[in-house]
Design goal:
Aspartate Aminotransferase, domain 1; Aspartate Aminotransferase, domain 2; 7-stranded mixed β-sheet; 16 strands; binds pyridoxal-5'-phosphate
Length: 446
């Protein structure tokens, strides 16, 4: 019998060529792949990714910040297999299912107080869209239809759909679409790298909070919400700031009748050192956004947690007062099951404590990096590390990415900023390998 199937036995070279011909890769100038390696991955196990030639790469960025407990995690795999044999999907309008109910209840118990209602989406940008729409709709339902503007921090990142881009302050992602994006104001970022010499991170954060206050004082009547990445602005290059800023932001938003949206898509799920970054400022936002690590890096899922006050403003006889936003895969059972398995691991393995030990170990062995004459602003929050590299290379990020691959590392610098955001299952010898090889890379590129 003649097989009509083409030969699909993959090889590195074969898959690379086919991918470049058929796949339009994200966050990429496709022409750069003429020189930049595109890496076909055959399988993953723990912190390691393997290509078809037997090379391995330590996933030091958790595959774009999503993976928490390693690739091919046996417990998440088992939960998904079980769910697959039970219910793969059902629509969530007019129907419900156990995984989505259990996940909503557990998050309500774990999250900062008052966030009793979970609304589901499929990716981070959708969670941002949902929160912005919900906030403005809340004010409309509450007799304040003029509150339709949003503010965000300088260098903020909240996703790349058109609404999310309106509160994303990254010129490279925005500029081509300027005409399509609503203009929203930004307020100064408390990123401590911008502090005056001698000024503490805390004092600088308080100074930035004064600028926020001045802005709110003047514009609160037209502002629906302030959206913020708590403690770490990820896409800005892991900009870190003092939690006192969040405390002041919470007070000011309450004082001026503006919602506080905590975008914990990147920093939530233990990444900041606590389960939610807001805990470190001891605040409850009006909306809390989760995605990325929520499924352990397995499946797309996002959610917006909202307060009872928000929820009640939509609860009425008229359909139009309800929140009619919908996505086809809202609350997908498989994704919710992966999220439940992820929360189980947090509880069973005392992950937050274990991460504290790991972070202390990495900080210890990273001393030579911290002390390197070409390394600036070495910083750490929870399971995130970052530093700037003084380099003569204008295309540092791409060179570093390529050199890292030769050193069995997946690093994806943001400009001149190298960052580590490893899966939490990283072992001590893997941290040692990560630090030693990164030091070699810094030596080579400076
Ligand atoms: C990644 C990210 C988003 C967008 O999530 P996507 O799933 O990529 O759309 C939004 N906010 C923050 C803080 C993020 O890091």
């Amino acid at each position: 019998m003649i097989s009509l199937m083409p030969n699909h036995t993959p090889t590195n070279a074969g898959l690379l060529a086919r991918s470049l011909s058929a796949v339009w890769h994200p966050c990429s100038q496709m022409k750069h792949y003429e020189n930049l390696p595109l890496v076909p991955i055959a399988r993953g196990a723990g912190v390691w990714l393997y290509d078809f030639d037997g090379n391995r790469y330590l996933d030091a960025v958790s595959s774009w910040w999503v993976n928490l407990f390693g690739h091919g995690n046996p417990r998440i795999n088992a939960a998904l297999r079980d769910q697959l044999d039970t219910l793969e999907h059902v629509m969530l309008a007019g129907f419900t299912h156990e995984p989505v109910v259990r996940l909503s209840e557990r998050l309500r118990d774990l999250a900062p107080a008052g966030l009793g209602h979970c609304f589901y989406g499929s990716d981070g940008a959708s969670a941002t869209e949902i929160a912005l729409k919900m906030s403005a709709h809340y004010w409309r339902n509450s007799g304040k239809p003029g509150k339709t503007h949003f503010i965000s921090l300088q260098n903020s990142y909240h996703g790349e759909t058109l609404g999310a881009l309106s509160v994303t302050d990254v010129a490279l992602f925005r500029d081509a679409y300027g005409a399509l994006i609503a203009q929203q104001a930004t307020v100064p970022t408390p990123d401590w790298r911008a502090a005056e010499p001698g000024e503490s991170a805390q004092d600088f954060a308080l100074r930035c909070a004064e600028a926020l206050e001045a802005h709110l004082q003047q514009h609160h009547e037209t502002i629906a919400a302030f959206i913020v990445e708590p403690l770490v602005q990820g896409a800005a290059g892991m900009a870190m700031y003092h939690p006192v800023y969040l405390q002041r932001a919470r007070e000011l938003c309450s004082q001026y009748g503006v919602h506080l949206i905590a975008d914990e898509i990147a920093v939530g799920m233990g990444r900041s050192g606590t389960l939610f970054a807001c805990e470190q400022a001891n605040i409850s936002p009006d909306f809390l956004l989760l995605s990325k690590g929520i499924t352990g890096g397995y499946l797309p899922l996002s959610l917006v947690m909202a307060t009872n006050d928000i929820y009640r403003a939509f609860y009425a006889d008229e359909t139009a007062r309800g929140f009619l936003h919908s996505h086809s895969y809202t609350g997908n059972p498989l994704a919710c099951r992966a999220a439940l398995a992820t929360l189980d691991i947090f509880a069973q393995d005392d992950v937050l404590n274990a991460n504290r030990t790991k972070a202390a170990f990495l900080n210890g062995i990273a001393q030579p990096l911290r002390d390197h004459p070409k390394v600036r602003n070495f910083r750490n929050t929870g399971m995130i590390w970052a530093f700037e590299v003084d380099t003569p290379h204008k295309d540092f990020a791409r060179r570093c990415f390529a050199l890292a691959l030769q050193n069995e590392l997946l690093l994806r610098p943001i400009g001149n900023t190298i960052y580590f955001m490893p899966p939490y299952v990283i072992a001590e010898e893997e941290m040692q390998l990560l630090v030693t090889r990164t030091l070699n890379i810094v030596e080579t590129l400076t």
